[in-house]
Amino acid sequence: MLLEAEKEKVKNLQETIKHLQADKEFLKDQLSRMTGKKAIGSEVEESSGEIAESSTIDDTDDEEMKLSSKGKKAKSTKQDDLIRTRAKTVRGVILRYKRALQSFNQGGSMKRAFQKVGVDRNTISRTSPIAELALAAPGVFQALPPWNAQVEKLATFVDRCREATTDEIKEKIVQMKACGELLPMTH
Q1: Which residues pair with residue 87 across a beta bridge?
Q2: For burial by CB atoms within 10 Å, which of 8, 47, 119, 126 has the most?
Q3: Can you tell me the distance from the alpha carbon of 113 to that of 105, in angstroms, rounded to the nearest whole number?
Q4: Is the dihedral of CA 18, 24, 27, 29 positive or negative?
């Protein structure tokens, strides 16, 4: 039993190392973009954690995802205590959803997928109508008035996305969830 606990600790530490290395590469890339030069010793590689961008999401989405460290407890090995992501824009919400979807399709567990992306299940659940509408009916999504963070809360935009979702779109969302093209969540 003690051996299993140690193996789990090692596994969590290895996963943490992978996340930190990915963060390091991300920060190097951001630094090189800001300075207009390539950072010394940085080789940009596509990791298996990255996703293919759609036409509605551009390369600046990574800049919109802000990483923040959550306070670490003295001997905490829980992965979800290590790194969290905060989506500050609608594009960030969609990108975070796509990352969680890709992790889910690779790992098979929503809990692991959310831990890997660094987001709580309830956060994804609350904002999923935005991503579901954007992926299932891009035309309807783009026809919506854009979200203005200075005027309305993200929850208000989520409500607008729910209202814009017709019965036909809801049926398509259900089909996409069954095919694994969307996260199998109910909200």
Answers
A1: 65
A2: 119
A3: 8
A4: negative
The mean predicted confidence, pLDDT, of the chain is: 75
The closest alpha carbon to 62, from 37, 35, 25, belongs to 25
Give the pTM: 0.55
Query: 90 burial class (0-12, 13-18, 19+ CB within 10 angstroms)?
Result: buried
Q: List the one residue out of 138, 125, 126 whose CA is nearest residue 165.
A: 138
* 134: nearest Cα among 82, 89, 179: 89
Tell me the sheet residues that pair with 84: 68
Burial class (CB in 10 A: 0-12, 13-18, 19+), 21: exposed
**In sequence order, which residues have a C-beta less than 8 Å from that of residue 89 and are 6 or more positions away?**
64, 147, 149
Mean per-residue pLDDT for 27-32? 77
Whether the pLDDT of residue 39 is over 70: the answer is: no
Say what angle helices 167-179 and 121-136 make with each other, to 10 degrees.
Answer: 110
